[in-house]
């Protein structure tokens, strides 16, 4: 096995990783240092449909009380969540 490939694991529904804080989370090092834009959630528009959660490649979105939240330590600013949200509840803004 090549060193960058992880051992394949399967999870039960209740064990599915929810975010990077989950013990089986894949990201262990903060990777947001090079981010130039970041997603900002409009809580008034968000209905907690979890589409952004499902599509985020880094697994850094969690949904609590039907509102999405982003772990900015690990968000790389790819913008996929913003594209996938049908309610336009996620705007990409420049880092300051
Ligand atoms: S896809 Fe949009 S509406 Fe759905 S949880 Fe994410 S931000 Fe909220
Ligand atoms: S910008 Fe990319 S990495 Fe950050 S929360 Fe959205 S989909 Fe995930």
Entry summary:
The protein is of the alpha+beta class.
Explain this structure.
By secondary structure, the chain is of the alpha+beta class. It has helices at residues 51-55, 80-84, and strands at 37-41, 61-64, 67-70, 90-94. A two-stranded antiparallel sheet has the order 1-4. Strands 2-3 form a two-stranded antiparallel sheet. The longest helix is centred in the middle third of the chain and has 5 residues, at 51-55. Bound molecules: iron/sulfur cluster (SF4) (2 copies). One iron/sulfur cluster (SF4) is lined by residues 41, 46-52, 63, 68, 85, 87, 89-90.
Please describe the structure with a list of short key phrases separated by commas or semicolons.
96 residues; alpha+beta; two-stranded antiparallel ribbon; 19% strand; disordered N terminus
From the spread of the alpha carbons, the general shape counts as: globular
Number of helices: 2
Tell me the distance between the termini.
Answer: 41 Å
| Strand fraction | 15-25%
Poorly predicted ranges (pLDDT <50, ≥5 residues)?
A: 1-5
What would you call the quaternary organization?
single chain
Mean pLDDT: 81
What is the CATH topology assignment? Alpha-Beta Plaits
Task: Tell me the number of strands.
Answer: 4
Bound molecules: iron/sulfur cluster
Overall SS class: alpha+beta
* Strand order in the largest sheet: 1-4
**How is the main sheet built?**
2 strands, antiparallel
What percent of residues adopt helix (DSSP H or I)?
Answer: 10-25%
**CATH C-level class:** Alpha Beta
Order of helices and strands: EHEEHE
């Amino acid at each position: 096995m090549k060193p960058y490939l992880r051992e394949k694991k399967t999870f039960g529904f209740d064990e599915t990783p929810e975010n990077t804080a989950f013990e089986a989370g894949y990201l262990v090092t903060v990777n947001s240092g090079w981010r130039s834009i970041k997603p900002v959630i409009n809580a008034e528009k968000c209905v907690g449909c979890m589409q952004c959660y499902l599509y985020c490649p880094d697994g850094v979105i969690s949904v609590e009380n039907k509102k999405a939240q982003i772990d900015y330590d690990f968000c790389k600013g790819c913008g996929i969540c913003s594209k996938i949200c049908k309610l336009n509840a996620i705007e990409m803004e420049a880092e300051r």
